[in-house]
Specification:
The structure holds 2 protein chains of 2 kinds. By secondary structure, chain A is mainly beta. Chain A has one helix at residues 14-21, and strands spanning 26-30, 36-37, 51-55, 59-68, 82-89, 94-100, 112-121, 124-131. In chain A, the strands form 2 sheets. Chain A has a 5-stranded mixed beta barrel with strand order 4-5-6-8-7. The chains are: A mainly beta, B alpha/beta. The complex binds zinc ion. Zinc ion is lined by residues 30, 32-33, 35, 43, 45-46, 48 of chain A.
């Protein structure tokens, strides 16, 4: 199996990727202003370095999404066309993740998702998101 | 302290390649474009004392670097730099040239961009799916399968359409208008008519973006010669004066409460750009916008106050930007139907219009022209107001 290009943890995001390997999604919480964020060396809002990693709920909504029809990378050749998007976590920060949809469920902007951590290689874990059945799906 | 006056014009425009066929590599295209721009201005290479080089973010020194100076045989330069601001690099370079000329650091500066992504036997998606640096949280885009600009702009388009309750018709009108202009431009790549049905019949690249929502890759180079207004007045071509310039880089967080996809750096640059020229947006005669994807045109119309938020799609659907519409936009066909040479595409068309050299596509009014460049995920933005010499003397 060909692996997709994997995000290389930098110092500020290393705990995030370690968390994925332990099966949970995490966010940084600012000890001064409370802003939740991802992978910052200092708070994006107030500049404080008192940032602590906390487990995230794993729930969120779709900020935006797309279905990719071109296999830009060999790792996605068998998946085309595939859903992917930008997810807003319940805690506030947004991150990219593939969208997994059961039959009859389609992604919807602002629709609910929950994280599914996928192991791609020995020490490679990525966050995907399952689109949850949504009572608004049926609306015109 | 009053703002320093900008005394600079674009006095020469050169091109090389601009083709879907195989070409020499980017460095050679850059060399040819600079020589063509010098010839266009009626200058020899000895007149140049500055060279600013732009390249794609994936290119390296091997593709196009500072040694372009030696390749061109340029001696004793007063200014030499690679300008890296992603899609905003071309205008950023012209701005730097204009500042240098105005401050007396250089007299005549060539700004050049070149790229040769089309290689026989290689799929275009290989060139445009290139990976920047997959580090940190942003690196998740690649494991999420978001390669190239189309995927990123598709997210913006989806957000825009859903935010304003619109559908893909909003995008189709941009693509069709661009094609109508391109049909009037002999240098455009796509010149056959594009109907709405043909637009919708084309394959998706990244939903909601279809083939004709995306820029046409070409191999080519474009160079612009920047010099003072006085020197420009003595050269071969009617100068396009640089009336004002601005940049805007929002740095918007990826978090709740922000709309990184709906608010570009144009929001920051627009008021500064207009105020520096002492004009209102109503006095702008035409717009040459960075339209690598159709959604960019809609966002730019709104950021620059041509339309209110969410109104650009109606403006465009009513024919507002097509030939004969309310305001001419991307009169050469832009990136969508003309050719994609990043920030130099709109710059070149603005210079052609300011000279009155647009042939069948020349607009009646070209006194004041807005030119924009856009890069990253709407992270980097640079803009110019160019003015026709006879109107802005
Ligand atoms: Zn804080």
């Amino acid at each position: 199996m060909t692996l997709p290009p994997i995000a290389l943890p930098d110092e500020a995001s290393l705990p995030f990727f370690k968390g994925l390997a332990h099966g949970h999604l995490s966010v940084q919480l600012c000890g001064r202003c409370g802003t939740a964020q991802l992978g910052n060396p200092e708070c994006s809002d107030c500049g404080s370095t008192a940032l602590d990693w906390r487990p995230a709920s794993g729930r969120g909504t779709i900020h935006s999404f797309t279905r990719i029809h071109i296999a830009y990378h060999q790792a996605f050749a068998d998946l085309v066309p595939y859903w992917t998007g930008l997810i807003e976590l319940e805690e506030g920060p947004r991150l990219f993740g593939r969208l997994l949809c059961d039959a009859g469920v389609r992604p919807r902007t602002d629709g609910p998702v929950e994280v599914v951590i996928e192991q791609l290689g020995d020490e490679v874990f990525v966050p995907n998101f399952r689109c949850l059945a949504d009572h608004r799906q049926g609306e015109p | 302290m009053p703002a320093a006056a900008i005394n600079a014009s674009i006095a020469g425009l050169g091109k090389a390649g601009i083709t879907r066929e195989a070409t020499p590599p980017a460095r050679e295209l850059a060399r040819l474009a600079v020589l063509d721009a010098l010839a266009d201005a009626g200058l020899t290479r000895q007149a140049l004392d500055g060279l600013l080089i732009c390249r794609t973010s994936a290119a390296t020194d091997k593709d196009l670097g500072l040694d372009l100076q030696r390749t061109l045989g340029l001696r004793d330069l007063a200014l030499l730099e690679i300008v890296l601001c992603e899609g905003a690099s071309a205008i950023a370079a012209i701005q730097q040239a204009a500042l240098a000329v105005s401050a007396g650091l250089a007299t005549t500066v060539a700004c050049v961009f070149a790229d040769a992504p089309l290689v026989p036997g290689k799929r275009t998606s290989e060139s445009f799916g290139r990976i920047k640096s997959p580090s940190g949280i942003d690196g998740l885009r690649y494991s999420a399968g978001l390669f190239g600009g189309a995927a990123i702009y598709a997210l913006a388009a989806r957000r825009y359409l859903d935010h304003y309750g619109a559908n893909e018709e909003a995008l189709s009108s941009v693509a069709v208008a661009a094609r109508q202009w391109a049909m009037l431009n002999p240098d455009a790549i796509f010149r056959q008519p594009l109907t709405r049905d043909q637009y919708f019949a084309a394959r998706y690249i990244a939903e909601p973006l279809r083939l004709f929502d995306c820029a046409i890759p070409v191999n080519g180079g474009i160079a612009a010669i920047v010099t003072s207004r006085e020197r420009a007045a003595d050269l071969r071509q009617p100068p396009a004066h640089i009336l004002s310039m601005a940049q805007g880089h929002p740095g918007t967080p990826d978090a709740r409460g922000f709309e990184r996809e709906l608010s570009t750096g144009g929001r920051i640059a627009a008021p500064a750009l207009l105020a520096r020229a002492g004009i209102s947006v109503g006095e702008v005669d035409q717009l040459q916008l960075y339209d690598a994807f159709s959604i960019s045109t809609l966002l730019s119309l709104e950021q620059y106050g041509i339309c209110g938020p969410g109104e650009a799609m109606h403006f465009v659907a009513d024919g507002g930007i097509a030939p004969g519409g309310r305001i001419p936009v991307n009169t050469g066909g832009g990136h969508l139907s003309g050719y994609y040479l990043q920030g130099m595409t709109p710059v070149a068309e603005a210079v052609i219009q300011a000279r009155g050299a647009g042939g069948d596509r020349q607009c009646g009014k070209a006194r004041t022209i807005l030119v924009t460049n856009e890069g990253g995920r709407f992270d980097y933005h640079a803009a110019l107001l160019l003015g026709q010499a006879e109107h802005w003397s």
